[in-house]
Design brief:
This protein has helices at about 10-30, 90-115, 125-145, 155-160, 175-205, 205-215, and strands at about 5, 35, 40, 55, 55-60, 60-65, 75-80, 120, 125, 175, 220. By secondary structure, it is of the alpha+beta class.
């Protein structure tokens, strides 16, 4: 029989697991990992000979060539048609680790929804299994983020950040929100791994067992 068990700790873990998976996916797909040095924007519509400025952005496999107040908006899209065309070998490796970590987090997010009804699989706690998966995902993401700055010396990055750009030194570029979102998602993945243990404790407490013995199929506890 399916017992729907909802506690504050289990619901917090479920919601955070879903948010973390989406955050990592959005960060992975975003072109806003690096913001290039300001460039003149001749289409900004300003008068008096001042063309204005915009900052191009560069992601793992995509870029935005115009970011600013230009009338045409940003022109964004992938710069790499194939995996081999990604700017650097470091970025290729980073993409593999980040994609693997994001995939694992996505799987856990889906499983976490069903954890409201099914708390164990083959007599193993679903929360403990998911917690281990989230810890593994966090490690994969951490390795990917550590590899990413190694690609800052590639020709693609130099064209955006200046000739002084080198591995682990972005020169005239600054880090975009996507990089920080990926870091935040990685830290949150480890937090989810810790919360999974609390969710397991909350859903297997004596009070929950008492309500199950009373024949209740929907159990909501603070």
């Amino acid at each position: 029989m399916c017992h729907v068990i909802v506690t504050c700790r289990s619901m917090l873990w479920t919601l955070l697991s879903i948010v973390v998976a989406f955050a990592e996916l959005i960060a992975f797909m975003s072109p806003d990992w690096l913001l290039g040095f300001p460039r003149p924007d001749s289409s900004s519509g300003r008068t008096g000979g001042d063309p204005g400025e915009y900052r191009p952005s560069l992601g793992l496999y995509s870029r935005c060539l115009r970011v600013g107040s230009g009338a045409g908006g940003a022109s964004c899209g992938p710069y790499a048609g194939t995996f081999a065309e990604v700017a650097s070998g470091f970025w290729q490796a980073a993409m593999l680790f980040l994609a693997a970590g994001t995939l694992v987090l996505g799987m856990v997010a889906c499983i976490s929804i069903f954890s409201l009804c099914f708390q164990s699989v083959l007599k193993k706690s679903i929360f403990n299994i998911c917690g281990v998966m989230q810890a593994i995902a966090g490690l994969l993401l951490m390795v990917g983020l550590m590899l990413y700055p190694g690609g800052w010396g590639s020709d693609k990055v130099v064209s955006y950040c200046g000739k002084e750009a080198s591995p682990f030194r972005p020169a005239q570029c600054s880090l975009g929100w996507a990089f920080y979102a990926a870091i935040g998602g990685t830290l949150a993945a480890f937090l989810c791994a810790v919360l999974s243990a609390q969710a397991e404790i909350a859903t297997s407490s004596d009070k929950v067992q008492e309500e199950i013995e009373e024949g209740k199929s929907l159990i909501c506890l603070l």
